[in-house]
Write a structure and sequence with these properties.
With 210 residues, the protein is of the alpha+beta class. It contains 6 helices and 9 strands. The chain has helices at residues 20-29, 32-35, 62-71, 120-135, 174-179, 183-189; strands at 5-13, 39-47, 52-59, 79-94, 107-113, 141-150, 159-165, 196-198, 201-203. The protein has an 8-stranded antiparallel β-barrel. A hairpin with a 4-residue loop joins strand 2 and strand 3. It is globular.
Length: 210
């Protein structure tokens, strides 16, 4: 079940204590937002490449999201960096071929941008009207949800697109290559602010089997 407000909670860890962090994370940390009534559900991922765990909570409302950002502390010796924020949904689109539970796809691919206020309308129009629709032509690309980031430090990213994929083959697809090379995209790409931070997370902290 999705809501219009999420909390993004990424913990980077130093792997040094065997399964102790995994036990604390699964048995205590992840359960708090639901037990406190601040979120209706949460999706959990891991990135071996980043050495990070990601939880994306569907907050009850904006006030609950802000409270959750304040409440999460990640106080564990293995945690070396915590990155969290509340996000307000501004766009959502699922592929025509996607399953009804597209949000449960095994890959979460967040793409961050820092968009100047004067260029936000142009950026949104490109992303929503062209870019996402071309990506969703790929059979492995299930859905995209876009958020405007709130409650984050100054200078942080302003927008994040959360893509949901069923297979890593999506990254090498002809549809993605085409979406990244249109005249509209290339015009925006020439502007100095147009830089992204792309991250790949696998559902439940596991990479897919070969």
């Amino acid at each position: 079940m999705s809501s219009t407000t999420i909390v993004y909670d990424e913990l980077a860890i130093e792997r040094q204590d065997g399964y102790a962090f995994d036990a604390w994370y699964a048995n205590h940390y992840l359960k708090r937002p639901l037990e406190q009534g601040l979120a209706t559900t949460g999706h959990h991922y891991g990135s071996p490449a980043r050495g990070a765990y990601l939880a994306v909570y569907e907050a009850v409302d904006r006030h609950a999201a802000d409270a959750l950002v304040r409440a999460l502390d990640g106080a564990h010796p293995a945690v070396v960096r915590a990155e969290r924020f509340a996000g307000e949904q501004i766009f959502e689109l699922a592929a025509a071929h996607a399953r009804p539970d597209a949000i449960e796809s095994r890959i979460c691919y967040p793409v961050f941008f820092r968009v100047p206020a004067a260029r936000e309308q142009a950026f949104d129009e490109w992303y929503d009207r062209e870019h996402v629709r071309m990506l969703l032509e790929c059979p492995h690309w299930s859905m995209c949800r876009r958020f405007r980031i709130r409650s984050a430090p100054d200078g942080y990213w302003t927008h994040v697109a959360m893509h949901f994929l069923t297979d890593p083959l999506a990254f090498e697809s002809k549809e993605r290559a085409a979406a990244r090379s249109t005249p509209w995209r290339l015009r925006l790409e020439s502007e100095p602010w147009f830089r992204s931070d792309n991250r790949v997370f696998f559902r439940h902290g596991r990479e897919p089997a070969e």
